[in-house]
Amino acid sequence: MNRKEITTLGALKQLGYQTKSIKNELRDNLRENIKNGINNFEGVWGYEDSVIPELERAILSRHNINLLGLRGQAKTRLARLMINLLDEWIPVVEGSEINDDPLQPMSRYAIELIKEKGDDTPISWLHRNDRFYEKLATPDVTVADLIGDVDPIKAANLKLSYADDRVLHFGMIPRANRCIFVINELPDLQARIQVSLFNILQEGDIQIRGFKLRLPLDLQFIFTANPEDYTNRGSIVTPLKDRIGSQILTHYPEDIATARKITEQESKLDQRQSSIVSVPNIAKDLLEQISFEARKSEYVDAKSGVSARMSITAFENLLSAAERRALVNKEDTTTIRLTDFMGVIPAITGKIELVYEGEQEGAGSVAEILIEESVKTLFESYFPKIEKLERKDAESPYDELISWFFNGEGFELLDDYTNLEYQNELDKITPLNDLILKYQPNTEKGETYFLKELLLWGLVAYKKLNKNRFTKGYQFKDIYGSYINGL
After folding, report:
1. CA distances from 244 to 32, 248, 373 (A)
2. Beta bridge mates, 167
3. pLDDT in tens, 280-300
4. Would you give the distance in Å from CA 71 to the centre of its chain?
5. In the predicted structure, residue 263 carries a pLDDT above the cut 90
6. CA dist., res. 21 & res. 28, Å (int)
7. What is the distance between the alpha carbons of residues 89 and 3, in angstroms, rounded to a whole number?
8. CA 318 to CA 324: how far, in whole Å?
9. Least confident interval from 120-134, 171-185, 308-322, 470-484
10. Angle at Cα 322 formed by Cα 316 and Cα 325, nearest 5°?
11. Which of 79, 115, 323, 477 is the right S-S partner for 481, CB 3.0 to 4.6 Å?
């Protein structure tokens, strides 16, 4: 079909074009994609066996959909990806405000134009990318914004009575006819505004300022909502919930591997960062573990959730911390260190809500606790668990390492050490080398020094060593050193 040659209603009829509702359009294209094994929601990870099958069933059922979940669970992304299930082009009456179907006109403008010009009625083509409307529910949204209102300026310019329906100005929903319309954070919409959606969802018609309009709007509604909002800021009125066909629960990634895919896909990195900074896999796992720890932490409000955006921004900060160090030291390349994780704290504090909100320093302390808990969890994946070794008189694989600190003056690791200085300092602790060789013998060179740091931080987390933060770095000491020295 050469749509450039089809510019009139007559040419469209000769083509044999058949009118199809948007819900049938989505359904038919989804059926074909499923038959052909095409992924309908490319780039969404972790929902393959849960959310996506439910969403596909809702589309096949021609339902309006409510995506219910905490922040950062890809609700809006799923809605936007539904555009790909629309036909690439659809015909509309040229000049129509509400995307009138040439074969089934609704507006007064389109009906009168077709009556006047017949098969010579001009048509235009609407691309699927232009068939997506999105509105964030905020307290200042009005019925006029969504549905429409009388336009006094139009009435004055055209010298029309307010009783003439030509003075009407259509709102966002009528203008989204034959399109996907998304209302984000539906519970934030005032109850009286939600009521205005009743007829549109059930009967497909609208009312504006008492005008008796019968516009069978053709819309695919998608709503998003956060369960927290039901109690904190508002709720979805029951009759409106009754008119929404399917409510689908979203969730956070269930494993580290899935979370890593999301972070790596969504992170906005400068190519120069990627070329300068090498990121060990263990560092990526540790970064994702922070979000998992936050979601079960007693300090973080579980009702608010911990967005996937926390890991994304933290990853960007992590690379920036290493990049800055390389620039300061005038080095061409560098590798992520565990000390670099102090640079992700600003990305964490802005993404979590504490159970008991206090001073800003409180969020920073919680962020450090989350990093420490993540180290503790990851430590057990690479080295023997310490808790199992704490029997009386039992020997521990870490005795020699702990003795090294007990007999020494402590150990300092500065944030801005050059690559060589950093490696030389860690190499001074000979028991670290023995532990790596024994428990992680096949470790790549880039991860060896990160594992050495992990050993130190892990022993601190298990109260076997003491760690102090100072302006330029960290000091590791024997757990009893400060008492012996009278500090």
Report:
1. 25, 11, 42
2. none
3. 999 999 999 999 999 999 888
4. 7
5. yes
6. 11
7. 9
8. 10
9. 470-484
10. 140
11. 477
- Tell me how far the alpha carbon of residue 464 is from its chain's centroid: 38
Burial 48-64 (b: 16+ CB within 10 A, else e): eeebbebbbebbeeebb
Distance in Å from the first CA to the final CA of the chain: 84
Give the span between the Cα atoms of 37 and 51, in whole angstroms.
17
Rounded to whole angstroms, the Cα distance separating 24 from 182 reads 18
**Tell me, what amino acid is at 54?**
E
pLDDT in tens, 336-390: 999 999 999 999 988 888 887 554 458 888 999 999 999 999 999 999 987 654 5
Looking at residue 395, its pLDDT comes to 77
| Neighbour tally for 360: CB within 10 Å | 8
Quote the tokens at residue 363. 């969020």
Instruction: Give CA separation, 156 vs 150, 161, 162, in Å.
Output: 11, 9, 10
Bridge partners, 68 (sequence order): 225, 249
* Confidence at residue 392, expressed as pLDDT on a 0 to 100 scale: 57
As a whole number, mean pLDDT of residues 393-404 equals 84
Mean pLDDT for all residues in the chain: 88
Q: What is the DSSP letter of 206?
A: -
Number of H helices, E strands in the chain: 23, 16
Neighbouring-strand partners of residue 477: 466
pLDDT at 100 over 90: yes
Output the CA–CA distances (angstroms, integers) from residue 477 to 287, 335, 386, 453, in the order listed. 25, 25, 18, 14
Closest CA to 414 of 481, 345, 469, 354: 469
Sign of the four-CA dihedral 9, 10, 14, 19: positive
The Cβ of residue 426 has, within 10 Å, a number of other Cβ atoms equal to 22
List, as one string, the DSSP characters of 105-140. --SHHHHHHHHHHGGG-BEEEEEGGGSEEEEE--TT
What is the Cα–Cα distance from 334 to 322, expressed in whole angstroms?
Answer: 7
Task: Fill in the amino acid letter for 358.
Answer: G
Q: How many CB atoms lie within 10 A of CB 292?
A: 21
pLDDT at position 188: 85
Would you say the C-alpha torsion 462, 465, 470, 472 has a positive or negative sign? negative
Cα distance between residue 74 and residue 249, in whole Å = 11
Residues in Cβ contact with 51 at an 8 Å cutoff, skipping those fewer than 6 apart: 78, 248, 249, 250, 251
What is the model's pLDDT at position 479? 79
